[in-house]
Design a protein that fits this description.
With 437 residues, this protein is α/β, with parallel strands linked by helices. The protein contains 15 helices and 18 strands.
């Protein structure tokens, strides 16, 4: 079967492996992004797939044949590569540079013929560089040079195109232009494309599959949905992220949580675990702020599709879920209480209570009876948020007496949690009116 395949490949330099035991297959029509941190081995893998670097172990198979048992020209007729940099020192006009892509098709000492010129001009037409044919390559912009180098690769008439960070040094308009081009070539010609990208959002927007490398091994592979998961990205990249949805295309998009914007972040990390009880968007800011500050966070019980559920999902949090528009049933209430009791802290957000989520209030009550420190966020008196005919208020009044603190805002709750130790003595509770109890 036609493919470019790595079979348990280990490779590196001077006998020292950089990449170990990697399996990877690129077929015609595939559009795959190779992602991962710096020094994960992405560029090294491309060198192995283009017969630049011999594997230490394993095999590279091109259409079922061992790549290293094939003549270099035969490989170059099937596999083309575009490196990280677009060198500006070719003293050639664009058409002559693109014609260099025809070398694998030429017999020794034979000059280019009409078919070769036609292939080069078709490649320039596909890449939008035909108008540059007579221009000096050294006078082109970075984006133009990159498109010309892709044209040179396409002039090889390959089945597989490998690109190493082709969007590096390009502005956002040229990044989109370049990836639109690759997407069009992949769709219209069946070209198999493997592209190394550092921009995870571009990878999710354009590529069918993502392969995540970490420390020279494949950490995960699959769709953007399967690969771009906050806990995994945090483990691999060492950065806290939120994964949300693209507003137009609906694919996952990764946003960094900037520690520099939060004065509490980084003070005494790692911190303990906080279970947050919210709903209806009442806890979204606090969930992100607690994660940023270094806490392990869980939340629930939340209806799927709820604003807080969406935030928790984007942050990759452990969440007690219930069906959309459904009350918190006994089973979910038990799970929520268990998560609260297992936490170091419980925070009850400034959430309204009706009969459907009364079980959440009961879960907090069970946590406080288990002597878990509970912080109540009371920006609005519960009397104005109780839609249960007084049942919620009765439980809440008991919580007020037993809670570690009552905070007047999410920010005050965050400052409280970041400023105390787990085993600190219970302090006087701070009420919205400034009264202490």
């Amino acid at each position: 079967m036609a493919s470019l395949k790595l079979d348990a490949v280990s490779c590196g330099y001077d006998g020292h492996p950089v990449v170990q035991d990697v399996d990877l297959e690129l077929k015609p029509g595939d559009f795959i992004a190779l992602i991962g941190p710096n020094a994960a081995g992405k560029s090294t893998l491309l060198k192995v797939m283009t017969r630049v670097l011999r594997p230490l172990r394993g095999r590279v198979l091109l259409d079922g044949r061992d790549l290293w048992r094939m003549p270099p020209s035969a490989v170059a007729r099937r596999v083309a590569a575009v490196g990280q940099e677009a060198p500006a020192d070719f003293p050639l006009c664009v058409q002559d540079l693109v014609l260099m892509g025809r070398l694998p098709h030429l017999e020794r000492f034979r000059a280019e013929g009409p078919r070769d010129v036609g292939a080069a001009r078709r490649a320039m037409s596909l890449t939008g560089t035909l108008a540059l044919a007579g221009r000096d390559f050294t006078g082109l912009s970075a984006g133009e040079r990159q498109r010309v180098l892709i044209a040179r690769a396409l002039a090889q008439e390959p089945a597989y195109l490998l690109l190493d960070e082709p969007t590096a040094h390009l502005d956002i308009a040229h990044q989109v232009e370049l990836l639109d081009l690759l997407c069009r070539l992949n769709r219209d010609t069946g070209l198999g494309v493997l592209v190394v990208l550092h921009d995870l959002n571009l990878a999710a927007l354009y590529c069918d599959r993502l392969v995540l490398l970490h420390q020279g091994r494949v950490s995960c592979r699959g769709s953007a949905e399967e690969v771009l998961v906050p806990p995994r990205l945090q483990d691999v990249y060492g950065s806290r992220v939120v994964v949300s949805r693209h507003p137009v295309h609906g694919v996952p998009q990764v946003s960094l949580i900037a520690a520099a914007h939060d004065p509490t972040c980084g003070q005494g990390l790692p911190r303990g675990k906080v279970h947050v009880v919210g709903g209806g968007g009442s806890a979204s800011w606090l969930l992100e702020a607690l994660v940023t500050a270094g806490f392990r966070v869980s939340t629930g019980a939340l209806n799927r599709g709820d604003s807080d559920w969406t935030a928790a999902r984007a942050l990759g949090l452990e969440t007690v879920e219930v069906a959309p528009f459904s009350p918190v049933d006994a089973a979910a209430g038990q799970r929520n209480a268990a998560a609260a009791i297992a936490a170091d802290w419980v925070v009850l957000a400034d959430v309204p209570f009706g009969h459907g989520n009364l079980a959440n209030l009961e879960a907090v009550r069970r946590a406080v009876l288990a002597e878990v420190p509970v912080v109540l966020v009371e920006a609005t008196p519960l009397e104005e948020r109780d839609y249960t005919g007084g049942r919620a208020l009765e439980v809440y009044r008991e919580l007020r007496k037993r809670a570690y603190a009552v905070a007047a805002s999410d920010l005050e709750a965050l400052r409280l949690l970041t400023g105390v130790e787990r085993d600190a003595p219970r302090r006087e509770r701070i009420l919205p009116d400034g009264e202490k109890r």
